[in-house]
């Protein structure tokens, strides 16, 4: 679009003292709301990805339950914070990955669905073994937010299950490593050392999956 034409459109958008300084760009923090707002998570912060020539809003399906959205013509409102402070507060306090429970009752409103459940089954199967590179990458992906926020001073890893002919870790060890470091996050080195001597988290529960889905019984 020619600059002269863009200037003309910008002049039309200027209302009083409100001036459009730039267009929405990838990475901008947006506040998204679906009316009626029934609870706090009905308004959450998303990171923008501009899709040229698109006329609809797209979002990950993990957010649908929070918004009570069923894609039958639901109307969504989008707000763009106008300052770095507002954008920071929106992302740190209202980001989608921080809205997992309803404040009124404490019940979970977001959970593992579809792809996440399938990945969890494959990860925890008895015949799943991964190399060092994949093990480190998956652990980092699970702890990235704690590391970036300096809540985790040092990542504690687990020794490989198989040593020869090359070190291999099980998928369950990835999950155990992430859970272990989440528990230790924010602790001082002295507190972490003391807590490492205490039995960690354990869970015995029945599964809806058939036993054969978890891999060979002899593995």
Helix-strand blueprint:
Elements: H1 3-13, E1 29-34, E2 43-47, H2 64-67, E3 76-79, H3 84-94, H4 115-123, E4 129-130, H5 132-148, E5 169-170, H6 171-184, H7 189-195
Antiparallel strand pairs: 1-2, 1-3, 4-5
Helix pairs in contact: 5-6
Would you write up a description of this structure?
With 219 residues, this protein is α+β, with helices and mostly antiparallel strands. The protein has two domains: 3-98, Barwin-like endoglucanases, CATH 2.40.40.20; 115-203, RNA polymerase Rpb1, domain 3 (Enzyme I, Chain A, domain 2, Orthogonal Bundle). Helices cover 33% and strands 9% of the residues. It has helices at 3-13, 64-67, 84-94, 115-123, 132-148, 171-184, 189-195, and strands at residues 29-34, 43-47, 76-79, 129-130, 169-170. The strands form two sheets. A three-stranded antiparallel β-sheet has the order 2-1-3, covered by helices on one side. A two-stranded antiparallel ribbon has the order 4-5. Helix 5 packs parallel to helix 6. The termini are far apart. 10% of the residues are buried. The mean pLDDT is 81.
């Amino acid at each position: 679009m020619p600059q002269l034409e863009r200037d003309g459109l910008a002049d039309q958008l200027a209302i009083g003292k409100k001036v459009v300084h730039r267009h929405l760009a990838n990475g901008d923090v947006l506040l998204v709301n679906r009316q009626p707002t029934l609870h706090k998570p009905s308004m959450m912060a998303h990171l923008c990805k501009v899709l040229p020539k698109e006329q609809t809003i797209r979002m990950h399906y993990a957010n649908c339950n929070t918004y009570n959205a069923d894609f039958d013509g639901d109307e969504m409102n989008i707000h763009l914070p106008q300052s770095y402070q507002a954008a920071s507060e929106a992302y740190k306090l209202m980001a989608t990955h921080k809205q997992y429970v309803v404040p009124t009752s404490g019940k979970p409103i977001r959970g593992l669905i579809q792809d996440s459940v399938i990945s969890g089954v494959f990860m925890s199967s008895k015949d799943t073994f991964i190399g060092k590179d994949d093990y480190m990458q998956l652990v980092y992906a699970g702890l990235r937010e704690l590391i970036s926020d300096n809540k985790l001073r040092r990542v504690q890893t687990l020794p490989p299950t198989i040593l020869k002919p090359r070190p291999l870790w099980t998928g369950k060890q990835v999950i155990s490593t992430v859970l272990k470091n989440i528990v230790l996050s924010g602790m001082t080195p002295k507190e972490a050392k003391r807590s490492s001597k205490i039995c960690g988290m354990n869970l015995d529960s029945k599964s809806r999956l058939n036993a054969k889905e978890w891999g060979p019984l002899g593995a």
